[in-house]
What does this fold into?
Amino acid sequence: MKCLVGLAEWRLAAAGPEALRLARAVGADGVQVDLGGPGRGEWLDAPGRIGALRAAAESTGVRLLAVAGNHLNDVGLMSPRARPVLERLLDAAGALAVPLVFVPSFRRSAIDGPEAFDRTVEVLRWAAGQAEARGLALASENVLTGGQARLLAERIGSPAFRLVLDTFNPVAAGLSCAALVAELSDLLTDQVHLKDGPPAVGPTPLLGTGTGRLDDTLGALGNHRVPVRALVLENDYRDGDRERLVADLAWARRYAAGFRG
It folds into this structure.
């Protein structure tokens, strides 16, 4: 199976069915969609939204790749409010027939010490069990070291649990993505987030022109035979600049040709 090149809905100037139509217009193969929530757009499971997305996927030929629970960064994965959000996330993914849901661990969900690590294990162990029962993979996106990330997976202990590789967040935290690939190749999910940095001010650099050392990371994925199914652009395109988006898609497409998911 060829490696797809996709977009992250929450980094686009369009949402919902419009994001899929934008993806088709610029030549992307798929879209990861967001659960939504306060400050993050309409809830994915709002009345009629699941059906509209499925219809848009069918009419455009753009695949629905995954559902992200970015609202958990606002709620806090360790808070009592997290489990209802996780249930909505998993149910929405099941209704959309996507293979993957992922849970970010930033801001209020940051794994910033032993207590947060233990509580994250507890919540994700439960969520992984729920995902497995639905035939889904559940992945964590975090900036743990390789050893910490492997321990997280071992303590969760579920075949449904994976790790999302983001090509810049670990770099911003002082880690090497290529080294993480070498340490964690057997645990990585088959969808990889592509972005380059630093993104703090102004538009993020075009892929391959920033400080993320993307060539090293993508080379490591190939060398360690990680079965990458989708390279998903996560640079910030919310300003509507299609020229940057098309340029990044072309850059990613050159690498995707070397992967077989």
In short: The mean pLDDT is 95. Residues 229 and 261 are 4 Å apart (CA to CA).
